[in-house]
Design a protein that fits this description.
mainly beta; 14 strands; about 40% strand; homodimer; Flavin_Rdtase-like_dom (chains A, B); Flavoredoxin (chains A, B); Split_barrel_FMN-bd (chains A, B); two-stranded antiparallel ribbon; Pnp Oxidase, Chain A; 8-stranded antiparallel β-sheet; about 190 residues; flavoprotein (chains A, B)
């Protein structure tokens, strides 16, 4: 089981503000699936919204269009290999959860599976915008519940200390960066 | 002067794929401005496109809507303080380039100033989508030229080695992460 505590919706944007690569999970009827997405970002604070690019050719695309729901999962470095695996195979050909031995739990607001071992999770409902979905593969969602592993995110703040779990940032060709040193600019203007 | 070399457009997405915080610069007529944006992402590979959130209340918003152009600048950790400064003041009240002693150069395709000391730059033309601009403050752009400091990005690959320049990832309240250790997943599935 993965440790998790609820994150207040007004703080949910902080889970993605630093630009980590995410896993997009979905459920439609009895089917579940998961893919990787480096192209996602927060879109608003409260109620929190997100934007994510979901290619037309993916099974995830049809499942999200069918269910009107998805979840964004923020993987740790330990899940980098899984991130590549689910990003390079199609749910039309394999049951990725079985093939890659990925466990999951179910959240409270949407049916999409939430992957074990992630650092944080955002349950989302699609904000239907057919024109940009069709033209740019761009999906907007409202975050309706959020969760985090309290070892790395508590009281609205990340605590990714040296030697602990880190989120990851995909570049290309199997290359990632991990999230690096935290720092604060002294005398911040606000 | 800032060292820079052109980045082929097909590789431009790699400049932003890891989710760094960016500076959004703009020129309209004789006026120039710059703001910070943690909420930006690639939107397509080739031709490269980007998405960025630009609040209605910013001067940048009216300048981009007026000119149809903008640039995304990827600051190094040395520019974290400048990132906060330009993110917490309005170009309606101060000339940010003068007030914060920020130098800039001019690219080849758009008029927006490109800030000295950044790691990479993407010159962009707005893809007009009035509905999502008005509803979500969400702007889409096509990248029409891209540049990078060859010390950190060469031959389509980042080289942010330990001790060298790093991009940054804003969280909230003056807190950032720097881009951390690069790693490759062995036997990547593709």
């Amino acid at each position: 089981m993965t440790n998790r505590v609820p994150v207040p919706l007004a703080k949910a944007y902080r889970l993605m503000n630093h630009g980590p690569t995410v896993l997009v999970s979905s459920r439609h009827g009895d089917a579940v699936n998961v893919m990787a997405a480096a192209w996602s970002m927060p879109l608003d604070f409260d109620p929190p919204k997100v934007a994510v690019v979901i290619d037309k050719n993916t099974l995830t695309r049809s499942m999200i269009e069918g269910s009107g729901e998805f979840a964004l999962n923020i993987p740790s470095r330990e899940l980098a290999r899984l991130t590549l695996q689910v990003g390079s195979t199609s749910g039309r050909e394999v049951d990725k959860f079985a093939a890659f031995n990925a466990g999951a739990w179910t959240g409270e607001q949407v049916g999409a599976p939430l992957l074990d071992g992630c650092l944080a999770w955002l349950e989302c409902r699609v904000l239907p915008e057919p024109h940009i979905q069709n033209t740019y593969d761009l999906f907007l969602g409202e975050v309706v519940a959020a969760w985090a592993d309290p070892a790395v995110f508590a009281d609205g703040h990340w605590n990714m200390a040296a030697g602990g779990k880190k989120s990851i940032h995909y570049v290309a060709g199997g290359h990632f960066f991990e999230t690096g040193e935290a720092f604060e600019v002294p005398d911040s203007p606000r």
